[in-house]
Each structure stands twice: as structure tokens, then as C-alpha cells.
Amino acid sequence: MDTKKLATFYNLAQTKNYSKTAEEIFLTQATVSKHIMALEKEWGIKLFSRKHRKVTLTQEALNVLPDVREILDKEQQLKQKIDALKNNPKGTLVVKGIPSISQYSAFDTITQFTKQYPEINLKFSEAGTDSLLNELNHDGTDIVFTRIFSPVSEKYDVIVNESDYFVALVPKNNPLSRFEKIQVQDLRNESFLVLEGTISGTNPIIPILKKPNVQPRIMYEGQRIDLILEMLNEGMGVSVVMDKSFDLTNYPNIAVIPIIPKKSSQLAFIKRKGDMVPVVNLFWEFARNRT
């Protein structure tokens, strides 16, 4: 089966536009049409309907689309394995990340990489957001996973995985828990439980907290989100964290309140630009293909 035709079909299923698909996969519109017609002839089913200049998928196309995606993913994995065998990358890969990395898709990327390449010795450790980017200036760190609030220097390569935004965690016995949305200034008289690296120099909430009428009291600062959740669940303090950085399954007494104006960050893998170490490049391509 010609996977180039499958790739054309899959892309067209996403764009629903022949000219856009042709542009994205560097083919002519005529070639895109030929690929689709060839698949329809080979499979004996209609894949797309074109009416009033609108392209829609048939039910048959929707049924086979997940299988096509699986074939394309398997092909990519095979290519990665072959490249790995040719380059035979071995050695140690040093990755450092934020304490809450397990709540993000990057954690799955790292674990899947170690399963696929068990011969590579992965060393992972945690660090605060403020210090992670500086870690790349030292030879001992290959890649970091951190949150960014603004564009990073052009001397780094960046793969953005996902975005997140700040929320307030408040005990349900706190009157603030009745708010549907909250401003940071509303927390000025509260005691803060701080996840290390959350209220930091790179955090856009800092200027708000440093206003004359806002004097935050820090009750706890550390890397244990579970301890923060336990304290909140017992009615102690408040916390400002990213929405995806916690799991409230076992903490029924905590309310989550969006902060306004909305403050967002991006979660990203970052490495030194031009790093030619094979094991670093292997992970980088692996992570890029999973984004």
C-alpha cells in the first residue's frame, strides 16, 4: 500500500481543501486528486463528496481514517527506529523539567522515548521555572521542559507542547470559593501556598502581587503539589497554580476559580540551537513528531 497516497488522504481529511493540502504536502492539486481517485479505485469506496465547492468526508472515509492514521504513525516509528539503528545512538540524555511535568503530555513523551530506546541512559531531574533555561548554559543539561511566558532567545530551539493558564485554588469553606472568577488582588489578605517556580520572576502575576496594596504572605513554598492540595483540603491558605498542574480526585474540599484577566503560559521542550549530539537529536525528532 502506497503510504504517500495515505498521507494525502489523511491531510485532505483535515483540511477539506484540495489546494491547501497540495500546498502543505508539496504536491500539485492534480496529483492530490490522482492519489484520492487511486485509493477510491483500489478500495472500491467513495472517500470525499464535493458539492457547491465544499469537500466533505463520506461515512466510509470516517470509518477508515483512524486506521490510516495508525499506519502513518507506524511508518514514522519505523523510520525513527531505522535511523536509530543507522546512527546507533547511545550514551546519556540529561533532561530537566518543572515539578508538575507529570500532568503534561511531555511526561508521556519522555516515558515513551525511554521505552522505545532502552539503550539510552535517561537522567531526569526537577528544577524551578526560573532556573531551567539557565541550565542549558551548562554542558551537563541537554534538554529542559519548562513553561514560558514570552519568546525565548533565538539561540535555543523550542517545541511547544501545549498551553496552560493560572487559576486560584481555594478551600470551599473560604468565602472566596463562591466567586465564579477572581482577580489576584482579591487574594491580598490570604496566606499563599506556593508551588516552587509558580510565583517567580518570569511569572506575569508578580507585578500584580508587588503592588503597594498587595502584600502576600507565603505560608508554604516547595515542590510538593500533593502537600499544597492536602493543606487546601484542610482549609488552609490559597494557591495560584496552572490549571493542568494538579489533580483534585482525592481533594473534594477545594474550589478552582479562573483568574482574570487570564494569564497563560506555554509548555515547551527547549535545547541549544545547533546541538549535534545524536542522542539529543533523536529525542528532539521523537518529541517533534508527537506534538
From TrEMBL:
CDD domains to which the protein is assigned, alphabetical: PBP2_LTTR_substrate
The keyword DNA-binding belongs to this UniProt entry's keyword annotation: yes
Presence of the UniProt keyword Transcription regulation in the record: yes
GO molecular function: DNA binding
Family label: Belongs to the LysR transcriptional regulatory family.
PANTHER family referenced in this protein's UniProt entry, alphabetically: HTH-TYPE TRANSCRIPTIONAL REGULATOR BSDA, HTH-TYPE TRANSCRIPTIONAL REGULATOR YBHD
Protein name: LysR family transcriptional regulator
Originating species: Pediococcus pentosaceus
